[in-house]
Amino acid sequence: MGATASTRAGFSSNESGSVAVIFGLAMIPIFVMMGSALDYTRAATMRTRLNRLSDRAALAAVKAAAQKEADCVLAKSSTGDCSLSQIQTLGEAAGAQYILADMAFQNYGTAKTLTLAKNDTSWSATVNYTAEMPAAMTKLMGFNSIPVKGSVTSNISMGSQLYLNVRMLLDNSMSMGIGATSDDITRMQALTGCAFGCHTTSYATTYYKAPKAQGIRFRIDDLRDATTALVATAKTVTASNARNHIKMAAYSFDHTTDPLVALTSDLTAVGSAVQALDLPTADDGTQAADAIAWLASQTPNSGDGLAPDRPQEVAFLVTDGVEDGIYTGWNGMSAPTGLPLSWWSPSLTKANTGAFPVGSCDALKQKDVIVAVVYTTYVPFVGTEQYDKLIGPFASNIEPNLQSCATNGYFYVASQPGDIQKGMQQLFNKAMAATALRLTQ
């Protein structure tokens, strides 16, 4: 009897086992919380997947509608399967198949809507979806599933479907050797005593290779990069549309015009060819008006962009707008012109420099070519005899003369780093959009 009482007393006084009980009870909500976090992580992953799926579906819808509309415009049809309602049905079906074929949506999707609409020159598709992700641990909290929903919108312009021939006329004269930024100009002057790079055979080591080795960039480098980026944009458009409807050509010019690549739909070849754009190896001046005249002779009348044999013609001119015949003796520029420098021999009575002449682009415009001009501003070194005499007399004429060359609304002043690329991209996009707008009026 004494032993039994002692044992009972021992059990009642021993509390060590309660720790395990308390720990076990405490772990229950911890496991539930961990399980809930896992459930919600799975739901978030599912939402990401369905958002991507919806994005592809919306893009497929607008792409199918825009391509069908372009084909209908080409066929000059607006009835039957070319009616707006039928084009919408076609686009919505193209998008819906992406969603319905997805295993995740088949298993967990509960509802979807795909709405396709025409807005002036573009198509817009919006996808809304809902789904239920089966719960695991959150079932213990009374939830059988976790709701997932999302909405995605995609747009595409009909202009990106049209046939374009883009011919780029790129100034690679010596003045494009100016430092690309104010910092590059300062570093050039500190290194060589001159703000311009020079690629001529006798000066290249000091005025071209040495600055390059120091990481100094010239304006020609910015122009090369901007042209490369524009070609990449065109490649993206054609790849998205799965059709080779954009052709491009590139030409450099100083006193003559030299083809970098002839007109072609092989945009990879165009991108490779423009890498050769650089300063000339001899200072032979600049004859931009002659380059434009040559381009006009090579460019046919522009079409409406609706078929491969009727492309919309677009001409890009990227230049600082200064004509220069000092070293060649060419004096075809319009007044006012530059003045001879004080240290020149008496035989040099005319500076042979002038602003890009008004009327030079009329021949292109008469062919309904869109003329896009990017003016790479001529840096004013006021107070130096070279600038004050060679450029100063006509400096105020450069910008308005170039603007008169451009089709209305297609003039861009590139005065800051990165502006050349920004201007070329902006004018290219405008050409596509404006062509589409003209078709729908």
From TrEMBL:
SUPFAM superfamilies: vWA-like. InterPro entries: Tad_N, vWFA_dom_sf. Pfam families: Tad (PF13400). Residues 17-62 form the Putative Flp pilus-assembly TadG-like N-terminal domain. Keywords: Membrane, Transmembrane, Transmembrane helix. The chain crosses the membrane at residues 20-40. This is Putative Flp pilus-assembly TadG-like N-terminal domain-containing protein. It comes from Methylocystis parvus. The lineage of its organism: Bacteria, Pseudomonadati, Pseudomonadota, Alphaproteobacteria, Hyphomicrobiales.
